[in-house]
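Next comes a single protein record:
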Amino acid sequence: MDRAPETGVRSLCGKTDCFATTVDWQRGGYVNDNKDTKEQVQFGLAMRRADQVAEQARAIEALGYDYATTGEHVFFHVPCANAFISLAVAAGATTTLKLMSTITLLPLYPAVLAAKQAAALDVASSGRFHMGIGVGGELPNEFEASGVPVSERGARTNEALEIMRRLFVEDDVHFEGEFNHLSGVTLEPKPFQKPSPPIWISGRKDAAWRRAARYGSGWLPYMYTPEMLAESNQRIAEYRAEESHDSPVDPGLFIFFCCHEDNSIAVEYANERLSKQYNQDFSSMIDKYAIAGDPDRCSERLREYIDAGARTVILSAASPMSYVETAESFMAQEVLPRFQA
């Protein structure tokens, strides 16, 4: 951010220009000193409370994070918001904070509607929107209830990305696809950022890597180890070269965390939350896919992901709701300054 927050909490970020109209997302944030060439890392925080979006967004901005994010589901094992609506509220409550959907379930939207909502949010926020895209599928009933066959989610997502890419920059768009038929469609107003808001592709497997290489500004995997992250970044770079793109895909990461003075309590809290969220026993996966422990342990684990290539890290508090704000502040004040420039 351009200035320290007025609350007295030291700003964790370097200079960022949230209102740039060209895609340049390597500025601001933290420095990875373990590399021969210093590379900056930015951090975001997921908003957990759908009924307190404005308050959370202001707190995230005051703590010095670069992004506020939120995901979405039509329904899930725990309450979920709608990304476009929550981020619109967050935009009105903040001034410099970047706003990312983590993620928008693109196959559940008509492509034109998704493009319209993304452009409108980018304009309303003066160019602070980043659109995270995923195919979903963890809960097939969600697709059935929405009238979308879950087996079509990948193809629908790819087709929607093709359409959105054109609507963001072209007028009088004609398109004949498997799921969408456009005849002379013009999107107005077009996005504030040119050519579009950054598109972050989420996922875990090869199909998502290829999607990121073809359509993405950034790559935002979840439930990844550092080794998986490094492999995905390499494969995406190879696929990107095949697509003849002249710019790299920005490497990111979405990860759950719980920071507590007591390692065992941090792990217990993370397991409690994630087991409920995913409706399964998560105890054997905490060490593999999450960051949980005291500040030293969280810092060590975060360093592994940064060394594996993460340059944008979105953190989501995995703890009982009563501890979420404490965990978020603890991470901001005790862990992230260790990565500060």
Remarks:
- The chain has eleven helices and twelve strands.
